[in-house]
## 1
Amino acid sequence: MEATLLDFDLRDKEEYIINMGPQHPSTHGVLRFEVCLQGEQIKYLRPHCGYIHRGIEKMSEALTYPQLIHLTDRMDYLSAHINNEAVALCVENAMGVEVSDRVKYIRTILAELSRIASHQLWWCAFGMDLGALTTFFYGLRDREHILDIFEETTGSRLTQSFITPGGLMADVHPNFQKRIKEFITYFRKKLPEYDQLLTGNIIFRERTHGIGVMSKEVAIDYGVTGPSGRGSGFTCDIRKIAPYSAYPFVKFNEITLSEGDTYSRYVVRIKEMWESLNILEQLVDNIPQGPTMLELKAVKAPKGEYYQRVETARGELGVYIVSDGGPSPARIHYRTPNFSNLFVINKLAKGHKIADLVAISGSLDLVIPDIDR
Amino acid sequence: MYDFTPFIESITSYLNENLSPFWAGLISMVLLGVGILLFYAVLGLYLVYAERKICARMQNRMGPNRVGPGGIFQTIADLIKLLLKELIYIRNADSLLFNIAPFIVIVASIMAIGAIPFAKGLQAVDLNIGVLYILAISSMGVIGILIAGWASNSKYSVIGAMRSGAQVISYELSVGLALLGIITFAGSMQFSEIIASQEDGWWIFKGHIPAMIAFVIFLIAGTAETNRGPFDLAEAESELTAGFHTEYSGIKFAFFFLAEYMNMFIIAAVATTLWLGGWLPFHLFRWGAFNTVMDFIPPVFWFFGKAAFVIYLMMWFKWTFPRLRIDQLLALEWKYLLPINLMNLILIAFLTLMKWHF
C-alpha cells in the first residue's frame, strides 16, 4: 500500500509541506502540487487539480455537435485541431458517413502541424524549466511559422475550430501547400539547432539521465500514453494501432525508447518532430480533389453509445458519446491524456530532489486545462 | 603616460594645505565615498542594460529600445519605478533582520569596489593584502542572503538561502585556491605589485597551462559565488519562484539585484587584474610600433575592455546553459574543481621555484 500524506508525522521538524502552485512558474498553469519535503528530498507528492474546471462536458450536453467543437479547442489548446478531429470522427462514425479523401488529408496535415507546434512549445518550456532560458525564444521563433499557416487557412492561431462533423469549415487557402513545403525545408534546417543548444549539453544530460524512471508496467498501469508512455517502451500510438483519417496512406515509424527516464521522453518528442515532418512531406503534394463538406441534412447521432480515440500531441484522447438521437449528446466524456499522465508523477518524483520534480513534470508535457476540462 | 597619481596627490595636498588634518582626511574620505557610490550605481545600471541587450541578441530579440536611443535609459526608468514602489512588510517576519539583509549584501559589494585598481593611481586604497581583502569582503554578502532567506518567513526563501549558503561556502575554496596560484607567481597580495609583475606579459600567457587552468576555475567558481549563470540555484525561478528574495519588493529588491551585477563586475575585475594584466595595454613581443600604438590607449579603457570581455563570457554561458542541481553543484566543486585546483597549485609552486615561467 502506498503511503499517504497522513502517514507522515508532521510534528517531526525534519519534514515540511510546500505548495507548488497554483501560481508557480513551472507548473505551466493552475496546477498545485502539495509536496512533502525533507530538506530538498521529496517524500510525498500530491497533485491537486480543478482550479480551471469549466464543466466542458456538462456544457456540451446543451450544445449541438457542430457547436461543441468549439469547446474542445479549450481542452488541450496546443492540439486544438486534433481535439476537433476526435469529436468529428466520433460523430461521423455514429452517423455512418465518410468524408472525402481531401478532407482526410487536410485533417491529417493540420494534425501533424499542430503536433509539431505543440512539441516546439514543449521544448521551449522544458528548457526553461531546467533554467536554459534561451530555448524559449528558439522554439517560439519556429512555432510562429506554423501559426501563420493556421492563421491563413483557419483565421485563428490557437483555437481554430476548423474541423467539424462532416468535413471542414472551409477549403484551405491557396498558399497552404506552398507554405507547408517552405516550412518543411525551413524546419529541417532549424531542428538540429535544438540538439546543439540543449540535447548535447552536459548539464542537460546530467539533469535528465536516470531521473524519474517510469517502467513499462507503470506506464501501462497508470495509462500513460503519448510520447511519455512511448519513452518507457509502451507502444501506444493510436495512429498505428487504429489508423484514422489519412494515416493508413502514409508510412511512418512509431518512436519508442525503453529507458523510461526524463531524457528518453525528451528524445521521443524530438524524434517525433522529425517523423511528423516526414508525414507532412508525404501528404502535402498528394491532396486529392473533392468536396470539403458533406451535405448533411442535420448532424444527429442515432441512439446509442460511440467511442473514438485519436492520438494528440500528448497521448490518447478518447471521446465517448451517449446519444438519445437528438442533435446534442445526452452525455459526452473525454478521456484526456494529461489526466492520466499527471497522476503518475508521485511515482516518478518520489525520492528525487525538488529540482527534479520540475524536470519530470516538464517531461510529462502537461497542459492543465486538458486535465480539468 | 596616463598616471593618475599626481592628480590624486594634488587634491590631497590642496586639502592638507588649506584644512586641518582631521577635516582634510574627512573630506577626502567623503569624496572617495561619493565617487565610489556614484560609480557603483551607474555601472550597476549599465551592466543590467548590457545583460538585457546581450541576452536579447542571443534570443533573437531586440531588447530594450524605447527609452532613449537604443534604450540606454531603460534601466534608469526601471530604477525610478523600483524606488517608487511600495515596500511590502510581512507579518510574522523578523523585521529587523528582514530590513538589514539587503544592506549587508550591497555594502559588501560596495566595499570590495574600493580596492580595485582601475588605472595607475586610480584606486581608493592600495592595500598590501588587496586580494585577501576582496575575498573576505565579497564573501560577506552570503550572510546577507542567509539572513534574507531566514527572515522572510517563507519556505521558498529558506530553501534558496540554504542552497546559496552551501554553494558560496564551497566555491569560496576554489576562488581562493585559484587566486593563490597567481599570488604564488607574483609573490605579492598587493594589486599594484601584481600588475607591476605583468609589465612583460600577462600571467595567463606567462604562467603556462597552470595559469590558464586557474583562470578557468576562477571563472567557474566566481560565477557560482555570484549566484549567476548555470549556478543560480539560490534564485532558480522555475523551482523556487525567486529564492531568497521572493518576499522583497521595491528598492530592497533592487539592492539584491544591483549587488548581483556588481559582484559579477568584481569577479571580472579581479580576473582582469590577476590574469589579464589589469590596466596594462596589450603588448606583443618585439612588435615595437604596435606596442607604442597600444600604449596610447588610456589604461581605463584597457581595464574596462578586459573586464567587459570577462563579463561577456559570464553572460554567454548564463544564457546558454541549463541550471545545475544542488548535489551536482557540490559534486562539481568537491570532486572535480578542488582536487584539480590543489594539483594545479602544487604545479604552480613548482614552476615558480624552478623559475620556469617567463
Note: Chain B touches chain A at residues 55, 58-61, 155-156, 159, 230, 232-233, 236-239, 241, 319-328 (CB under 8 Å).
## 2
Amino acid sequence: MLISDNLKEVRTQVQRRQLANGIFAMIGLLTILVALIILLGLTLQLLIQGAPRLSWDFFTSFPSRKPEQAGILSAWVGTSLVMLVTALAAVPLGIAAGIYLEEYARKNWVADIIEINVTNLAGVPSIVYGLLALGLFVYQFKLGESIQTAGLTLALLILPIVIVTTREALRAVPNSLREAAYALGATKWQTIWDHVLPCGLGSIMTGVIVALSRAIGETAPVITIGALTFIAFLPDSPLNQEFPYLPLTGSFPWINFEQLFGWLGAAFTVMPIQMFNWVSRPNPEFQLNAAAAGTVLIAMTLVMNGMAIYLRFLFRRGVKW
Amino acid sequence: MTREKKLEKSAQLSPKLVRDVREKIIELVLFLAAFSAVATTVAIMYILIKESWLFFNEVSVIDFLTDRKWTPLFVEKHYGIISLVSGTLVTSGVALLVAIPMGTIAAMYLSEFAPSRLRELIKPCLELLAAIPTVVYGYFALLFVTPMLQKILPDLPGFNMLSAGLVMGLMIIPFISSISEDAMRSVPVGLREGSYAMGATSLQTAWRVVFPSAISGISAAYILGASRAVGETMIVAIAAGLQPRLTWNPLEEAATITAYIVQVSMGDLPHHSIEYQTIFAAGLTLVLMTLVLNIMGHFLAKRYREIY
C-alpha cells in the first residue's frame, strides 16, 4: 500500500513538472512571437500609411514646404554617396586590420591594446562618433559639413564590425590550407592574399553588407556633424549637370575631370535625417511622408540583410572542410 | 671571385631581399590599419576632453554635478547634468525592464527548448529586428505606441519616456537574447546530461543548471544591453521630448543626454561658444557611463569564455 501511494505521489509530481515545462516552452515561443508580431504590426502600419506617397515623383522630387510635393531625391542620392565613401574607407581599412590581428599579431601587449580598443569602440554610442567628427573632421581638418565627413564618420563607426567579422572569417579557414601554401614556398603575404583571403571572402562580404546596412540607418552621428535637413540641390556631378545625368553630353568618356571629386565636399542630407525631419513636424501630412521614407529605409536595410543572410547560407552550405 | 660570379650571387640574393622587404612593408601597412582602432579611441578622448576642459574653465565641476537644472540655451544658464542623466536612466530603466525578462526567456527557449530547425528560422528574424534603423523605431514610439498608451493612460503627454523606453526595450531584445544564448550554449553538455540523469525536466535544467552556469555571460548581456540603452539616441530624441527635467517618473517628458546633443546639433551654434562646448561635456559624461558598463560587460563575458 505504502509503495503504491508513493508511486501516485511521484506520478503527480512528475506530471506537475512536465506541465510546468510545457508551459514554459509555450511562454518562450510566445515571447519571441510577441516581439516579432509587434514589430511586424508596426512595420505594416508604417507601410500602409506610407504606401500612398510612394510614387515615382516621391523619388525624384526635392523636399518641399508642401508635403504632397516633397520627395526624397536629395536624401537617397546623399545616402548613396555617403555609403560609397564609407565603404571605400571602412572596407580596406577594416579587412587590413582584421588580417593583421588574426594572421600577423604576436601575443603581446600591443596586440592586446589593439584588441581591447576594437571591443571598446564597438560599444561606444554612435552619437559620440558624431562628436568626434565634429571636433576632428569638421573643425580640425576643415573637411566641412560634407559628404566626405559623413562618409568617414560612418566608416569609423562600422570599422569594429568589419574588423571582427574579418577575424572570424579568417579564423574559420583551416590551418592545413596555410601549411600547404607554405610548403610550396609561398611567403606569408602570398599565402594570405592568394589562399586565405579568397576562402574567407564570402563571410567577410556578409559582414561588410551587415555593417553597411547599419550605417545606412545611422542618424545621430550625421546630425551631429551638421547635415542639413532641407537640401534642394544635388552635389555637382562629374557627368551631365542635370539629374538624372543622362543623356551624356560632350565627348568620350563624358566625365568632367575637374569636377570628379567635387561632390565629396558638397552639403548633403541622408534618408534617416529626412525622415527625422518629417517626423518632428506637427503637420500630419508630413508624417505620412515620414512613413513613406521609413518604408524605403526599412526596405533598404531588409534587402541588404536578406542578401547577407542568403550569402551566409550559400557559403555555409558550399564549403565543407 | 670573378665579376660574373659576383653578379650571379647578387642576382640570386636580390629576389629574396626584395621579397623580404615587401613582406615587411605589407606587415607594417597592416599594422597601421589595425592601429587605427587605437588612434580612434585616442582621438575620441582627446576631442571630448579638450572641449570639456574649455567648458569646465567656465563652469565649475561641482555646479555641473550638483545643480538641479540644465538650461544652457536660456538666458538664465544652469549646467546641472543630473537632469539629463535622470532622463537617460529612466528611459534605459524602462527599456531594460522590457528587454531583460523577454530577452532572457527568448534566449532560454532558443538554447534549451527550440528544435534546431525552428531556431535556424527564428534567429535571422530576430537579427532583422536589430537591423531596423533607430529613427524608424522612434517613429513607432511617437506615432503608434504613444497614442496606444494614451488610450490606457489618458493623461499621458505626447512626449513621454515610457513609450520611448518600451520601444527601446523591443529594440534591445535581440541584442540581449543573442549574447545570452551564446553564453547558455557554451555551457558543456555534460552538465545538462547530469541534470537530466537525475530526472530533471528541461525547465529545471535550464533554470537551475544552465542559467547559473552561464550567469557571467548572461549578466554581460544585460550590462552591454544597458550600455546600448544609455547611448541610444534617435528613439528618445523623437519620442521622449527635448525638455531637460529632473524627474524619475516615466510618464513625464524629459530629455536624455543623447537627445540634448541632437537638439543642440540641429541648431546653428558658433564654434567655441559655451553652448557648443556643453555637448562635449555631455558627451564625455555619456562616454564615461558607457565605458564603465562596457568594461564590466567585457570582463564578465571574458570570464565565461575562460571557464568553458
Note: Chain B is about 80% helix and 0% strand.
## 3
Amino acid sequence: MAALKKSTELLESVYSVVALLFILVACVGLCDAAAAVDVYRLIQYDMSGSPFGSRFAALNHHAASLSFPPGADLSRTVLIIPLRELNITFVREYITQKKPLGGLLFLLPEVLSFKHGGNKQVHEKEKMKKLLAELERLLVHSNIPYPVYFAFENDDIDTVLADIKKNDAMGQPATATTGGFKLVIPTAEPKKVVSPTITNIQGWLSGLKADGDANQLPTIAIVASYDTFGAAPALSVGSDSNGSGIVALLEIARLFSLLYSNPKTRGRYNLLFGLTSGGPYNYNGTQKWLRSFDQRLRESIDYAICLNSIGSWDNELWIHVSKPPENAYIKQIFEGFSNVAEELDLKVGLKHKKINISNPRVAWEHEQFSRLRVTAATLSELPVAPELFEGTGSLFDGRQYVNETAIIRGVKLVAESLARHIYGHQGKNVQIFADESSLAVNPAYIRSWLDLLSQTPRVAPFLSKNDPFVVALKKELADHADEVNVQHENLEGIFTFYDSTNARLNIHQVASVTFDLLLLLVLGSYLIVLFCFLVITTRGVDELISLFRRPPSRKVKTA
Amino acid sequence: MTMFHFFNCAILTFGPHAVYYSATPLSEYDTLGTSVKAALVYLGTALVKLVCLATFLQVSENDGFDPYQELLKALIGFIDVAGLYFALTQLTHRNISQNHKFQAVGLGWAFADSVLHRLAPLWVGARGLEFTWDYILQGLEANANLVLSISLAALGSLIWLRKNKPKTLIPIIYACAGIVATMPSITSYLRRGLGWHFPKVVGFELFTSLVMAFISWQLFSACQRPST
C-alpha cells in the first residue's frame, strides 16, 4: 500500500516536472527579431489632473513611413519619422485634430546620442535645434492617445525604414493581410510614480570669524538647479540647462575651497552652495530648501547667485533680477559683475522682471529667493524667461551644443566678482583666479563633469533618493565644502508622472495571414496528391477509387 | 497567426510520414509496431552517435569546412547504417513481408529523425513573430529525408535480407547505399565547403532524394524479378 502511494507520489512529481518543462518550452525564445533598438518614450504626466504626453507604452503594430499612400487607414500603424524628413505641420495636424494613429516613432540623428555621436559636429545645428524645440513643445503640451517613442538612427533601423518606404511607394500599406514589418514593444501599462522625491544638496564653506566677534558672518549663496525635464525623460540630459550651471558651481566650490583651506586667505563670508532639484516645476525644490532654513540664517544671506544655462553663449550674459535695478544691493552685484566682465572682454546685461505673486509660474530660480525677501540674481545666457518645461533639458540639449570655453569664462566671471566682494577689492584690477596660477580654472575638471552630466538623465521623479548620480554630486560637493547636507522632500503640487521611460523595440518581419492561408492550401493539396500517388503506385488506381467509394463498408468489416 | 504558421510548418514536416503510412499497405498490415521499434533504435543510434561525436570531434571555432573533421563525421555517420542493420535484421517482427518491413523501418527511422531534429526548432522558431522561409525549407528537407531513409532501408534490406540477388547488380546496390548513407556529409560539404545557401541545398536534397528513390525502386524490382 505504502509502496503504491509512494509510486503515485513519484508519478505526480514527474507530472509536475513535465508540466514545468512544457511551460518552459512554451516561454522559450520569442525574441528573434530582425532588429532590436533602444527606444525612449515621450513623457507622460498629468498637470492638475488633465493628461498630457503619450498615454500608452505598449506597442504592437505594423510600420509605415511618411510616404504612405494617401487615404490609408493608420489607426493600427506606427509612423516612423526621421527627424530630417520631419514636417512639423503634418505632425501638428495629426495631433491637434486627434487623427487616429497606432503610434509614432521619431528617429533622431545618431550624432545627438552621447554614446555614438561622441564629439562629432552636428550639421545644420541651428535648424535642427529649432525643429526639435518646436516638436518638443508640441508633444509635451498635447494629450496623445497612443505611444510616442524616440530612437536614434542606426544601420539596422535604416535598412528597415528603407524597406518600409519601398513597400509604401508600391502602394502597399502594411496591414495584417499584406505582411511587412511589425513593431513590438512588450511593456506593461505605465504606472504612476508614487510620491516622487526631490533631493536638495547643500554645502557650507564657513568663513573666518574675527576674535570676539559674536555676530554671525554674512553668507553668499551660489545655487544651481540640477534636474531636467524633456520630451523623453530617458534622454533629458540637459548639458546646458542646467548641466553647465552644475559644472560651474562645482568648479567655483573647488576654487573657493582652495582659498578657504588656508586661514590667511579665508574670507569673512560664509559660502553656501546649493544644488537644488525640482527646477522645471517652478523651482519647487528651491522653495522647500529655503523654507527649511531658520529665519536667522535666511536673513544672514547677503545675496544669492543662481546659475542657469551658461554653456552656449558667445559674448553676452544676462543678470536677471526681480527687484528694480535702482536697488542698492542689485546695483552692487551688477557693478561687481560688469567690472569683471569688462576685464574679461565680455558683456553683461541687466534684466528686470517683476514677480507676480498670484501667478504660480516661477520662471527663474532667484524669484524663489526674492519671494522670501532675499536678494538674488540669476546669471544666464537666456535673454528672456523660458516658458514652463522649456529650456530644462530638451532633446537637443546635449554635449554637442555646449561650449566648454563659455563655461570657463562664466566660472571666471562669477568667481572673480565673488572674490572681489569677499576680499573687498571692488573696482580694483586684481586677478585672483588668473590663468597659469594655482587658482586657475581647471578645464579638465569642467570637461569631465560636463561629459558625465551629458550622459545622465536627471528628471527628478525618476531619480531615486539614493541614485548614484545624487550620491556622486553629494560626494563631489563634500570634497570641496566643510559640511554637506542632503534634504529629501516630496515633489508636491499639480504634477503626476508615469514610469516606463525607456524600452526595447523589436522589429519583426512578418508574413501575412493571406500567405499562411495560401501555404495551408498548397500543403493540403500536396499531401492529397502525395496520398493519391502513393495509393496508386502501391495498390493501384482501383484501390484509390474504391477507397472513396466504400469507406463505411470497410469499417464494418474491421468491426 | 504565428500559431497558424507553426501549424503549417508542422504539417509540412510531419504530414508526409502520416500520409505515407496511411496510403501504403503498411496501415493494412498494421506495421506500426515495427515503425515504433525502428524509431527506438534510431534514438539509441543517435545517442551512440552523439557520444562518438563528442568524444572524437574537436569543436572548431570557425564555421569552415575541415576535410579531416568531416571525414570523421562521415565515419561516425555510418553508425546510422549499423543501426539500420540492427533494425532490419535483429528485431523480431511479426510475420511481415520484407517489402513492408523495410518501408516500416524507413518510415519509423525518418519520423524519429524529424521529431528529434526539427520539432524543437520549429516550436521555438516558427511561433515567433518574425517570418523566415527557414522553417518551410526545413519541412521540405524533412520530406527529402523521408524519401532517403526509405531508399536506404530498401537498399539495406536488399543487401542483408535478400539472399538470391543477381550478381551483376550487387556492386550497384552497394554504391547506391554508400551514396545514400553519405548524403548528410555531402550536404554538409555543400553548405559549408561551397557556401551554398539553404534553399539551394534543400533543392539539391529534394532532387537527389527523388533520383535515389527511383534508382532504389528500380533495383528492388530488378531483384524481385528472378525470385518470383
Note: The longest helix of chain B spans residues 198-227.
